[in-house]
Structures are given as C-alpha cells and as structure tokens.
Write a structure and sequence with these properties.
Blueprint lengths: L1 H20 L33 H5 L4 E8 L2 H4 L3 E6 L4 E3 L5 E4 L5 E2 L3 E4 L5 E8 L11 E6 L1 E2 L2 E5 L4 E5 L5
Parallel strand pairs: 1-10
Antiparallel strand pairs: 1-6, 2-4, 2-7, 3-6, 4-5, 7-8, 8-11, 9-10
C-alpha cells in the first residue's frame, strides 16, 4: 500500500513540475501590424505544400515522371550552383527531387525529379552560388532554362536566362 501511495505522490509531483516549467501560451499575433512603417510589408505565413498535386484528377490526363541531366556552364556554376525547382504548369516537383547542387568538374548532388502532364518547354529555378554543404543562405533570384530531350530532360545551363534578383522583383 505504501508503494502505491508513493507512486501517486511521485506522479503528482512530476505533473506539477512539468506544469510549472511549461511555457505560457502566447495569443495569436495578427498577420499585419497597424503601426508598421509605410513601405514595409508584414511577413505572410507560407505553405510548403504544392497547390497542384491532383492534376490527374482535375484534368483526367496522366502525369509522367521526368528527370533531368544538366549540361554545365563553368561561369554560372563557379564553386557551386544550387538550383531549386519552382513548380509551374504543366509540372510540379516531387519532394525528393527539387534541389540539385552542381559543382565544378561535373560534380553533382541530387537529381531533379518532376511530375508533368507533358514535358515542359522551359522551367524555372530559384538559384544561388554556394559550395555543396551551404544550405542555409537564401537564393539569389530566378533562372529560366529551356528544356529538350524526352523522359530524361536535358537542361543546357549555357542557354539559361538569368532573371531579376529577388530584391528587384515587384
């Protein structure tokens, strides 16, 4: 009997300790601040989920999987080039294949994998120059590349067009 009472006392103390150290709940903060200086925009909540994942259901067309082979451009790659595929009709990126690092001497890390209704004529990437393991920095801007080939698309980086940097886009 003493063991049961001791267990209850220990359980009660443990619950009280956790309750005492638990952080206070903070009320939801509105997305906009009424006193924000003009010219600054509040940061909007983002979603990491694609809004277009049921194209087969919506169009009654069959999606196909595509992968890509890159033809390097030494000036663009430099010490390393990180590409993040930007979803766009008729394709969306498959979660395991939307980031590719291309390095000097034909090194690469990752493979582009997308699902499409048909092979696109061109695709867009968010890009930045970085070494292989530098994943924390923001991307630089938009890179638009023509696509050739079939199920294994060919993306010639020599033919890509560098768009505006993010801070210059309005």
């Amino acid at each position: 009997m003493k063991k049961i009472i001791l267990c209850f006392v220990m359980l009660f103390c443990t619950v009280q300790c956790f309750a005492a150290t638990a952080p206070e709940t903070v009320p939801d903060v509105p997305a906009t601040k009424p006193d924000a200086p003009s010219g600054t925009l509040p940061r909007a909540p983002i979603s990491i989920f694609s809004t277009s994942t049921d194209w087969e259901g919506l169009t009654r067309l069959q999606l196909n999987e595509y992968s890509a082979k890159f033809i390097p451009n030494k000036n663009l790659i430099g010490r390393g080039l990180v590409l993040y595929y930007l979803d766009g009709f008729p394709c969306y990126g498959l979660g395991y294949g939307v980031r590719v690092w291309l390095g000097p001497n034909k090194q690469h890390d990752g493979t582009l994998h997308i699902a499409c209704l048909y092979r696109p004529e061109q695709i867009n990437f968010a890009w930045r120059n970085a070494t292989r393991d530098a994943d924390e920095a923001p991307s630089t801007g938009l890179l638009t590349c023509p696509v050739s080939g079939d199920r294994e698309m060919v993306i010639d980086l020599n033919k890509c067009t560098r768009g505006k940097d993010w801070q210059d886009i309005r």
